[in-house]
Write a structure and sequence with these properties.
The protein is mainly alpha-helical. It has 24 helices and two strands. A two-stranded antiparallel sheet has the order 1-2.
């Protein structure tokens, strides 16, 4: 294949887009983003109920006995149990499995149907867990919860990216992460309130998961599907009406033409196109971004903060309260991300958040290593407060960087040819490594002790280098025009274009850049070859007639 580059941006009409942020698109986005409540509530409730004595005695008596014998056990190992870890992590294994079914469902009934099914599965899981009588019933409930989260986490970020106007896509998409953090925080306070409701407080905590599930299920019944999804299923007129309504204007010709062209191009494409050389950058991002998001170590806090604070001698009541404080920081920092993401861009947040998380985990490791007495289980109050403060700062750094951007960026840098498959890969990888972290963390804490946080600090350093060096800035770029960013990129342009194509592209000779017949590209694409300027407001349609080299 001499050429190796097909157009990933099928339109160059960004300057002609006339959409605005309407109250309707905000309302629709809020309802769709409620899918994040499912994920967040489960993250928040799980670690808390694992510290409830009645829960441990019923399902994990070995852990209860281990805690009771804490005088003879390394405090770092108080919760070291593969069965207890499996209770947390099986949800993510289930979610990873069910993401493989989201694409076929979306092709039949659109992203809306995927979200409806996510809400339904989560309802079933919440009921099974709340009434569980043995470990088997509890795990089956967790599998159903995982199916719900898998469906919701695949569909919601894509729905938000497709329904939002380009200039507000970051803000509206981060509503998903905002809902996730709110779900975590609410669950943490519910755990704090139910811990003394003996003997069934844990059942109330777990059973209330049905509330966010019903919000998503009922809300998804009344919102429209995205114009992109409707066009893909042949509902052209309905797609046009939906686009006009969410944009607040009948003048949507340019944007609708881009959507139709993108869908037409995707129909003739190889269904495994994401594995072709021309899509190497997006495939790499679809895998590495969720991998790195989990290896920030954030889920060691979201899953097991209560256990960690308990290990450090705070006691169950104070541990739950400290966890809720961390959750409050998570919510506040996500609000800041919503404000900043479409102002300062993605890469600034990636950089600042990465540096902040790295420093925080190094400090936490140092304080734990220098102050915590493994024999007595004692840590000075000042040291414990320092750990809480830096875990809050770590959470803040995550909440305005890798937390929301880990879902936003993979959902926006695909074209429609790779979007469904790419997001399924992202969710699958995210859940697989959530499973790995959830299953391994308590054992790591037992054996590596404070070195666990050095381990995660190393990965934070690696992911910050990746974000700054290998991801383009996507702020303000229309979702169907992302492909040109990779052809401008210092590294990826060498992967997806031959030297001849790259030279022609840099000279502005668009006819030599390997694009396909009938595509439109920005007239100033060649001039922007080495820059990071945004497409929005800078392009005009130029028909290209030369076919790609094959």
């Amino acid at each position: 294949m001499a050429g190796g580059l097909a157009v990933t941006n099928v339109g160059g009409r960004a300057a002609e887009y006339n959409g605005k942020v309407t109250w309707y698109v905000i309302l629709v986005s809020l309802i769709a983003a409620s899918g994040g409540l499912l994920f967040g509530y489960d993250l928040g409730v799980t670690g808390g109920v694992e510290s409830f004595p009645e829960f441990l005695n019923l399902f994990f008596p070995d852990v209860a006995a281990q805690k009771a014998a804490s005088a003879s056990v390394n405090p770092y190992c108080s919760y070291d149990s593969q069965k207890l870890s499996a209770f947390t992590s099986v949800l993510f294994l289930s979610g990873a499995f069910f993401t493989f079914f989201t694409n076929p469902v979306a092709k039949i009934g659109g992203r809306k149907l995927v979200m409806i099914m996510g809400g339904a599965f989560f309802c079933i899981g919440a009921i099974l867990c709340a009434f569980a009588q043995d470990l088997a019933m509890l795990i089956i409930g967790r599998v159903c919860l995982g199916a719900g989260v898998g469906f919701a986490n695949q569909a919601v970020p894509l729905y938000l990216s497709e329904i939002a106007p380009a200039h507000a896509r970051g803000t509206l998409n981060i509503m998903f992460q905002m809902a996730t953090t709110i779900g975590i925080w609410v669950a943490q306070w519910i755990n704090y309130g139910t811990q003394n409701m003996h003997p069934h407080g844990w059942r109330l905590s777990v059973g209330l998961a049905i509330v966010p599930a019903l919000i998503l299920f009922l809300g998804s019944l009344i919102i429209p599907d995205t114009p992109n999804s409707l066009v893909h299923r042949g509902k052209i007129e309905q797609a046009r009406r939906t686009l006009e309504r969410v944009r607040g204007t009948p003048n949507v010709d340019a944007e609708f033409a881009d959507i139709v062209e993108a869908v037409d191009a995707s129909r003739s494409a190889n269904k495994m196109a994401i594995f072709q050389r021309k899509y190497r950058p997006v495939l790499t991002g679809a895998v590495l971004i969720p991998f790195f998001q989990q290896f920030t170590g954030i889920n060691t806090i979201m899953f097991y903060a209560t256990e960690l604070f308990d290990v450090l001698g705070d006691g169950a009541n104070a541990a739950l309260l400290n966890t809720a404080i961390v959750g409050a920081v998570n919510v506040g920092s996500t609000i800041l991300a919503i404000i900043l993401v479409d102002r300062v861009g993605r890469k600034v947040l990636f950089a600042e958040g990465g540096i902040q998380m790295f420093i925080c985990f190094v400090v936490v490791a140092g304080v734990m290593g220098g102050s915590f007495n493994k024999v007595t289980g004692y840590i000075p109050r000042k040291s414990a407060s320092t750990i809480l403060a830096f875990e809050c700062l770590f959470t803040a750094g995550f909440a305005w960087s890798w937390g929301p951007l880990g879902w936003l960026v993979p959902s926006e840098f695909h074209n429609i040819e790779t979007r469904g498959t790419g997001q399924a890969i992202t969710v699958c990888v995210n859940f697989l490594f959530s499973f790995v972290i959830g299953q391994a963390y308590l054992t790591m804490l037992c054996h590596l002790e404070y070195g666990t946080y050095i381990f995660f600090a190393f990965w934070v350093f690696c992911m910050t280098v990746y974000a700054l060096g290998f991801l383009p800035e996507t702020k303000g770029v229309p979702i169907e025009e992302m492909g040109i960013l990779w052809r401008r990129h210092w590294f990826w342009s060498k992967i997806i274009m031959t030297p001849e194509e790259r030279a022609a592209f840099q000279k502005g000779d668009l006819l030599g850049s390997g694009v396909t017949t009938g595509d439109h590209v920005p007239a100033n694409a060649g001039a922007l070859g080495k820059g990071e300027a945004h497409l929005a407001g800078q392009t005009q349609s130029v028909p290209v007639t030369k076919a790609a080299h094959v």
